[in-house]
């Protein structure tokens, strides 16, 4: 290198010198490790949607049970809500999600609200009629549960994807719902046996 160019730096002429970067691989490894630490394996989408849906319906029933002072009622209805959600509501919701994937924005949400209201109202009406509930109570309970299931369908549609990124929260909520369902089934067994 000529003597008159000793003070030149890469900033003066970045194309003239090929300056070695000894820490380049180390920085790349550090970035990869940081990205791996940040990455969270999401919970399954179906589990996230089911947890949100069933949890929403249970959260609709909880204040009513607390105001009525009937926490045992809340425990008793947990199993029918969970079983009804998994048996009656899951397949239609899944099919509607597939069918409405390419619809214009807003239409799938309306369809989920309508389907949820119809399933909640119909399921409640049938169950209450089978158990000979008073005729004047059936329409009120059916509209209430229709509203709860419609809200559950909408919530599951809207928030299942971001909620699944909080995998620990999804698993904890699903576990609490499972424990509540087991307590509800035990309650029914003790009621039948006793």
What's the helix count?
6
Radius of gyration: 28 Å
Largest sheet: none
Look at the structure and give the mean pLDDT: 85
Strand residue content: under 5%
Q: Share of helix among residues? A: over 70%
Helix-strand topology string: HHHHHH
The number of strands is 0
The termini sit apart by: 99 Å
Specify the overall morphology: elongated
Low-pLDDT residue spans? none
Query: Structural class, from helix and strand content?
Result: mainly alpha
Commentary on this structure:
This protein is mainly alpha-helical. Helices cover 75% and strands 0% of the residues. The chain is built from 6 helices and no strands. It has helices spanning 24-38, 45-68, 71-99, 107-130, 137-163, 167-193. The longest helix has 29 residues, at 71-99. The N and C termini lie far apart (99 Å). The model has no long low-confidence stretch (mean pLDDT 85).
């Amino acid at each position: 290198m000529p003597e008159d160019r000793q003070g030149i730096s890469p900033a003066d002429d970045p194309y003239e010198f090929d300056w070695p970067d000894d820490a380049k691989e180390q920085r790349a490894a550090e970035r990869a490790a940081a990205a791996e630490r940040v990455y969270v394996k999401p919970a399954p989408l179906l589990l996230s949607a089911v947890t949100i849906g069933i949890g929403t319906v249970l959260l609709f029933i909880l204040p009513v049970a607390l105001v009525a002072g009937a926490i045992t009622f809340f425990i008793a209805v947990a199993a029918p809500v969970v079983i009804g959600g998994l048996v009656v509501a899951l397949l239609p919701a899944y099919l509607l999600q597939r069918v409405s994937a390419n619809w214009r924005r807003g239409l799938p949400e309306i369809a989920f609200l309508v389907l949820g209201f119809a399933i909640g109202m119909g399921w409640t009406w049938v169950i209450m009629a089978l158990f000979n509930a008073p005729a004047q109570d059936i329409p009120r309970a059916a509209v209430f549960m229709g509203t709860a299931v419609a809200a559950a369908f909408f919530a599951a549609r809207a928030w299942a994807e971001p909620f699944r990124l909080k995998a620990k929260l999804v698993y904890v909520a699903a576990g609490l719902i499972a424990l509540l369902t087991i307590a509800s089934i035990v309650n029914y067994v003790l009621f039948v046996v006793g």
